[in-house]
Structures are given as structure tokens and as C-alpha cells.
Amino acid sequence: MTYDKSIFINGTWRDLKETETVYNPATLEPVAKVAYGGKAETEEAIAAALKAFKTWREMTGRERSGILYKAHELMLEDAERLGEILTTEQGKPLKEAIGEVKGAASFLLWYAEEASRTYGEWIPSSARSKRLLVIPQPVGVVGAITPWNFPASMITRKIAPALAAGCTVVLKPAPETPLSAIEIVRILEKAGMPSGVVNLVTGDAEAIGNTMLTSKDVRLITFTGSTEVGKHLMRESADHVKKLSLELGGHAPIIVFDDADIDKAVSLALASKFRNNGQTCICANRVYVHEAVKQTFNQKLTEKVAQLKIGDGLAEGTDLGPLINEQAVQKVQVHLEDAAAKGASIVSGGEKWNGGMAGHFYQPTILSEVTDDMLVMNEETFGPLMPVQTFRDEDVAVAKANDTDYGLAAYIFTETTSRAIRVAEKLEYGIVGVNDVFPAAAEAPFGGIKQSGVGKEGGHHGMDEFLEKKYVTIGMED
Ligand code: ADP
Question: Left (φ > 0), alpha (ψ -120 to 50) or beta: where does 311 sit?
Fold first, then answer.
């Protein structure tokens, strides 16, 4: 299958003379060429979305829902092939990729269900002669900008609620992973999405982004990516006072208490850190272990890390695929060298991996003797590097966990219910996992606080982002 025609506007697929190549990060081989769109295509896509909004918003929730159900079905039927495409452009192990595709489909299902449940309110008035109503209505044209680390689920998590609410969409996927985006839009097309409701523009991120920002017709920007780009979008949205839903960076702590089930804690810590090779905004960036269990935890952790298999995500049994690009490898290396220079010990890993493949690989790495001033304890690493520090006092662990500008996800491992609740309440994060490191679910509100973002994705909360609450007040005749 070719992807030359990667721009989808008003129901038509287009190519362009100017193209961009997509590479497999495991082999560095070219996989496909996609069109390199910019301002002109984005303007057209916005115009198409605005036109389609007039009719899409008038359809009933049930009618919109039918198309989303169909898309969900089609995506699940094709999960294996879509998983392979995802691994080829992104690198994650095939099992994870297929899991992501199924997760992506779950957002289509959830919002197919939510589409007909956009209830309003009837507010009892303090004046006898009035009636007060609240009508939820779609925001309008949505600009959706998505990252490369979850090329499928980040798209459906945004566009499924937008579409269910009655909004229309211009989607800009990450340049590293446009193929999953193209496949998803093909599925929506096949499911019967009317022309102009979903539009896709691949190409120049800045030009496409700026065109969305400067258009008064784009009423909401939904974005997942770096805090830096999120801040830029927020600043530039001011002129038209656009609504924003931003899911930005994180620096997740794991706190392992002395009453934790250590075997479970080790497995969960590994799953959190090394899923997608550490390239998730909710993956553990630092681990605090109680001194009483430090030795057992570290020993079991080291044994398990040694068993992880690095390689091509398409190969059977791979646990860790490549990183997305050379800069990602460099970042891990910089964090490692900084930590080592400041006194950290490398317990395992610590080097680039070269198993005869050309791609961007790095060994899963554990650091001990880490101090708070190290880069890895403060900046998002986005790679397979796990620093482990010890603590004695619950309050100190919580204070350290909270000592960051980020506030996306935090995890605690404990078998004591009261401690779980007490600490969960004190952690300044949008998401807290208690003995659970996989918080993302179609039915739950995912999102950060502080510099990790604004707004929620998932659940009925995710739908709210795309609905205005219009207040109607009616004066009654006597
Ligand atoms: P990362 O560092 O993880 O790639 P980015 O924030 O750079 O995160 O990228 C997330 C998404 O934002 C991608 O789709 C990328 O192309 C897009 N992006 C990057 N810069 C801009 C920009 N100036 N305007 C709009 N989108 C942008």
C-alpha cells in the first residue's frame, strides 16, 4: 500500500510534489513517502471542516454514533495489520503496537456510546417567571496535533470525542508517524464519515500549526506533545481566544513503600519505565524506594532488567524496540553522563546497544546513588533510563515527588489502603496509580496539572472539552 496521497481534504486524497520520507527507526530504512503540506492545504482543510460543521452538528448523536461504531469495528478487524504499520514507523514491539491499536479502537467505541448522551440541564430559577436551560453544543472546527509515541491512540482519543460532540476536525499527525494517521482516516472514510468532517494534513508542523493558530475558524486546539510546543500553542491562541486541550510532558515518580509487594512493585516499575522504551509521558522518570526494601527491590529489578530483549519491534519476543531518533539517544546519554559525573552508579546498562541493527537503540539502564540535582531527576528523559533513590520518611518521599513543575502521573506501591488514599490525596498530579501503572482508559479522565497540561481526555470529561454550555434564559408570560 502506498501513502503518497496523504492529504485528505473534503473527502479527497491528494499528493504533492514536495514529499517527506518516513523511516523505520529500527533499520533506518525508508518506509514510505508522504506529502509535505503547509499553509495552503491547511487553509483548505479548515474551510472544508467549517463547511461540514454546519451539517455534521445537525445530525443526531445516534447518527454520528453509528459511524464511530462502524469505525471501531473496522479498526479491530484490522488490528494486526495496523499494529505492523505502527511498529514499522514508530518502533515499539508488535505486541504493544497491536495493544495500542485496540486501545485506539476503544476510544471510538466509548465515544460512539457517549455521542447520544450529551445531556443538558434545566435549572430551577430563583425567579418564578423564568426558565433556565443549559444546552451543550459543539465547539466548532477543531485542530488536532498529535505526537509520534502513540501514533494511533492519541488520534482517536482526540478526534472520537470531537466527532461525537458534533465538531469537525483538521488533523496534523507527527511527521515521524503519519502512516497510522492515514490508516485511521481511511477507516473513518470507509465507515461513512461525510466529506469534510475529518481532514488530514501531513507536512510542515510549524506552517500547519501556525495556520490553525491564526485562523479564527479553528475554535479549539487539542494537542499532545512537549511542554515547549504546548506553551507556544497557548500563547499564539490568545489572539482568537481559542479553547485549548493540552496534554504535555511529565516527570512521573514511583514511590515504593516498605509495605509494598516487592515482586509486584518490580514488575510494575519495569512495565512503567520500559513500555515503549520509556517514550511515554506517563512513564516513570524517577523511583523512590524505602530503605527497608531497597536491597531486595534493586536485586530483583537488576535480575529482571537483564532478561529484557532489545531488537526490532517486529521480531518475536522483543521487549524494547528502538528509540525514535538519534536525538532521543543523545538525550539518554546526556542524562546518564550528567548523573555519572555527579556520583551516580550504573547498576545495569549504560550504553548504546548495537545488535547488528542500524537503528537508534539504547540498553535498559538502572542508576543508583542518584541525587536531586541530576538532570534525570528533573527533566523528562523519554528513554530507558531508571534512576533509583531511597527514602525513609513518607512525607519526604511525597515532598520529593511533588518537587517538579510537571504534574501528569505519579505511582505508589503499597499494600496499605489508608496510606494509598493519604498519599494519593497529597500528590500534586492529574493521575495517581496505586499498584497500577496503566492508567489510560477510554472511560477515565486522563490529563495533567501544572505544566503538564490543561483539560482531560477520556471519559465523559473528554467529551466536555468539545462542548460549549449555552445558557438559555426564558422570561415567561404571567
Ligand atoms: P516531541 O518532542 O515529542 O516530538 P513535539 O511537541 O515537538 O514533541 O511534537 C508533538 C507534535 O507537535 C507533533 O505533531 C509535531 O509535529 C507538532 N509540532 C511541533 N512544533 C510545532 C509547532 N510549532 N506548531 C504546531 N505543531 C508543532
Answer: left
